[in-house]
């Protein structure tokens, strides 16, 4: 069996190695010729899987995307060809939730205020939106949810997007990119909605770049320096609008979901599904894939203040490093472009490819000195709070 897998998908050899030969490919530049004789195709969000890509293939038995989003997959075409498809719903939701939460703590520190006491609006209350809400609620922050498409029997309370934008001090976006229907999310935050943001709003986008009209964002931000931005996703990736980057407080190249745990879960979910399609037992385990964090426990002498909570978060994952590296990467790309007079946007993808350091809160055990009020740290996701 020939398995074609995106070179940026970790643990493929460990999980799929017994099934056949594996060829690692650049998902961004994959061609029909390369896919021609594949039996299994494993992709990430940068590969458009459609009729054109599969035009030369007559063998394909399975397509898997180790992602939550599916906007890059023509699922109707795959269904019409009888090719089983699966993505990995929820695989990196914890990573995105923690990323947004840490970004909010960073902004609070930067602007000499506290996250606690603010109202946070979450647009899209599915896996990633709920993961942010879980962190915020564990920490005691008020959350407003907007999701017009949520199941009718969902017991949570929801508000309209208008009510959310009016009340929320912080808005975090967690919707899929959709282009049709009255609830389409393409340019959900258009110029008008951006202008209507209340003073000093923090706006975070960790879902898809095109959910915000990036050109309009540049225009509005020029007139509204009070708005603070965290952007992990960009219209036109891997070529973000360069004028936008300096206007953003924390800028990263679509890595909000890139914890080692999230990536491992993504590949593992595809492994489980493929084994089911093949009628075979999935007897490998995911936990054995993950290395230990460089230091596995921290002792707390007192319940952490917000400042100390940020320090703990940075211990697990320091978002500022990715922000700094991203800005430098884009500058380097521009210098190469100017010197060689050639298009060069490799930096965005290269930084994603090399992103292998991030862990989730659960990788760190907190040891306390017997304090009673520690459940919220467990609810945040840290493991093993106790003496
Ligand atoms: N930056 C990154 O690294 C990552 C980005 N993503 C993106 O985030 C998106 C969301 O992921 P999940 O939360 O796991 O998906 P999900 O499918 O669990 O939840 C999405 C929620 O958005 C809601 N929704 C749809 N249209 C809406 C609208 N117009 N207004 C408000 N809510 C709306 C849906 O009803 C659903 O509850 C993915 O589709 C993907 O594009 C996901 C993982 C990582
Ligand atoms: O899961 C999703 O949806 C995402 O956006 C991924 O985290 C993005 O990662 P890649 O698939 O582009 O590596």
From TrEMBL:
Example GO biological process: pyridoxine biosynthetic process
Catalytic activity: 4-phospho-D-erythronate + NAD(+) = (R)-3-hydroxy-2-oxo-4-phosphooxybutanoate + NADH + H(+)
Residues noted as binding NAD(+) in the record, renumbered to the chain: 147, 232, 257
Protein localization: Cytoplasm
Pfam families for the chain: 2-Hacid_dh_C, DUF3410
Superkingdom as given in the UniProt entry: Bacteria
Limits of the Erythronate-4-phosphate dehydrogenase dimerisation domain: 289-381
D-isomer specific 2-hydroxyacid dehydrogenase NAD-binding domain: residues covered: 111-256
Principal EC category: oxidoreductase
InterPro entries: D-iso_2-hydroxyacid_DH_PdxB, D-isomer_DH_CS, D-isomer_DH_NAD-bd, Erythronate-4-P_DHase, Erythronate-4-P_DHase_dimer, NAD(P)-bd_dom_sf, PdxB_dimer_sf
UniProt KW keywords: Cytoplasm, NAD, Oxidoreductase, Pyridoxine biosynthesis
UniProt family annotation: Belongs to the D-isomer specific 2-hydroxyacid dehydrogenase family. PdxB subfamily.
Quaternary assembly: Homodimer.
Role played: Catalyzes the oxidation of erythronate-4-phosphate to 3-hydroxy-2-oxo-4-phosphonooxybutanoate.
Cross-referenced HAMAP family: PdxB
Protein name: Erythronate-4-phosphate dehydrogenase
């Amino acid at each position: 069996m020939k398995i074609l897998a995106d070179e940026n998908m970790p643990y493929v050899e460990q999980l799929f190695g017994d099934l056949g030969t594996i060829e690692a490919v650049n998902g961004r530049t994959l061609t029909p010729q390369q896919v021609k004789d594949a039996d299994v195709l494993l992709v990430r969000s940068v590969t458009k899987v459609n009729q054109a890509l599969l035009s030369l293939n007559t063998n394909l038995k399975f397509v898997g995307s180790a992602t939550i989003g599916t906007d890059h997959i023509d699922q109707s075409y795959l269904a019409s060809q009888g090719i089983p498809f699966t993505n990995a719903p929820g695989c990196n939701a914890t990573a995105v939730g923690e990323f947004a939460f840490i970004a909010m703590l960073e902004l609070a520190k930067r602007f000499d205020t506290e996250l606690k006491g603010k109202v946070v609006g979450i647009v899209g209350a599915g896996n990633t939106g709920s993961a942010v809400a879980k962190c915020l609620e564990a920490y005691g922050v008020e959350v407003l949810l907007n999701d017009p498409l949520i199941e009718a029997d969902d017991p949570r309370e929801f508000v309209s997007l208008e009510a959310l934008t009016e009340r929320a001090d912080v808005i975090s976006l967690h919707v899929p990119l959709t282009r049709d229907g009255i609830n389409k999310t393409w340019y959900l935050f258009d110029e008008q909605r951006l202008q209507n943001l209340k003073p000093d709003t923090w706006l975070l986008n960790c879902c898809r770049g095109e959910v915000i009209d990036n050109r309009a964002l540049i225009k509005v931000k020029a007139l509204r320096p009070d708005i603070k931005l965290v952007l992990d996703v960009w219209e036109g990736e891997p070529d973000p609008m360069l004028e936008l980057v300096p206007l953003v407080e924390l800028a990263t190249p679509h890595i909000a979901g890139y914890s080692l745990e999230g990536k491992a879960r993504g590949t593992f979910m595809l492994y489980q599904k493929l084994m089911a399609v093949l009628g075979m037992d999935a007897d490998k385990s995911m936990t054995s894939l993950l290395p230990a964090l460089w230091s596995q426990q921290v002792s707390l002498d007192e319940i952490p203040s917000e400042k100390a909570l940020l320090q703990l978060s940075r211990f697990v994952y320091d978002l500022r490093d990715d922000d700094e590296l991203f800005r430098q990467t884009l500058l380097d790309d521009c210098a190469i472009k100017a010197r060689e007079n050639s298009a060069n946007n490799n930096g965005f993808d290269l930084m994603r490819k090399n992103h292998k350091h991030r862990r989730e809160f659960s990788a760190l055990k907190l040891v306390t000195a017997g304090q009673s009020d520690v459940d919220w740290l467990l609810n945040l996701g840290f493991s093993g709070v106790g003496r």
